Amino acid sequence: MAPIKVLIVDDHTLFRKGLASLLKQQKGIEVVGEAKDGEEGLRLAQTLKPDVILMDVNMPRLNGIQATRAIREIFPDARIIMLTVSEEDEDLFSAIKAGARGYLLKNVEPDQLIKAIHLLAEGEAVIPHAMASKLLNEFSSVAHKMDAPAESKLNLLTKREHEILQHLAKGGSNKEIAGTLCISEHTVKIHLKNILKKLHMNNRIQAAIYAHEQGLVNQKPLHKN
Amino acid sequence: MEKRRLLLITTQSLFGTGIVSLLDDQKEHLVIEKVADVKAAIDKCETFKPDVVVDFRETSGAEEQALLQELVSRYHARVVHCTLEANQLTIYDKTRIKNATVEDLMSAVLK
Known about the structure:
The structure holds 2 protein chains of 2 kinds. Chain A is an alpha/beta fold. Chain A has 2 domains: 4-140, 3-Layer(aba) Sandwich (Rossmann fold), CATH 3.40.50.2300; 153-213, Arc Repressor Mutant, subunit A. Chain A is built from 10 helices and 5 strands; from the N terminus they run E-H-E-H-E-H-E-H-E-H-H-H-H-H-H. Chain A has helices at 13-24, 38-48, 64-74, 89-98, 110-121, 129-147, 159-169, 174-181, 185-199, 204-213, and strands at 4-9, 29-35, 52-55, 80-84, 102-105. Chain A binds chain B through residues 11-15, 17-22, 25, 85, 106-110, 113, and chain B through 12-15, 17-22, 25, 58, 82, 84-85, 87, 89, 99-102, 105.
């Protein structure tokens, strides 16, 4: 039987190299390539056509969720396991929505990962029990919302995120927004990252355009709890 | 050439096992021993007398930091902390190498 061809996409060099070295010793697994970000992962997925892709979530240039979505658009049958330190529900849900077939934390034991690679190659999905129940809850909540009137994605934002998006849409830089709201620039960056994630957008320009389209710029500040 | 004596503090995590796998490629230059925590490392130092101690564990509280310092001062071993979260190598406790490569790790261990 031909070995399972595996592509590793991770910007943490030591983790990636160590994992590759570990997997190369496994019978039935062949590491065909390594990529240091989502963009390279997308390129290598097209040229190497791996059976299974191990994908980090937080990476420069193109993150793991964007890369997963892009790869699945080209190869709808691509089998991708997210391998990440992120236990954030948002990352889990986004990864599954993007088309990942598995989600494992990097503190997993080597045997569990090897088993997951084999399962994925056989067409199974791999989600740890604790995460599977989160997914079921999310699915149930989404199903419930489908019966309710359509809501704007803006409702997903917190009051502070609303404020920041409003300032962003008015052309404010991170520094200016930080000054206006009396918070640090770093905090603005974190809020902005969360805003982009919730709105499924890649950059601040897209978010600003969306805010304009939604009439957010002319709205009074929100009074959410 | 005399082999370097390397003591690894590691759990069976994916990261730790992967790094051990990388270091195994250098077996001709290294004598490797493994322990699970810093206390065991200090005990092992008495007999093993490592040149380098590499700690791959993610959690390292204040007490463990103090024990690592003790390792540095008592045994004059080079202590290298290698983290998954921060993506950096710390060569105790002066040098921090961000986005560390395999070459950085080998250099910290072998030179």
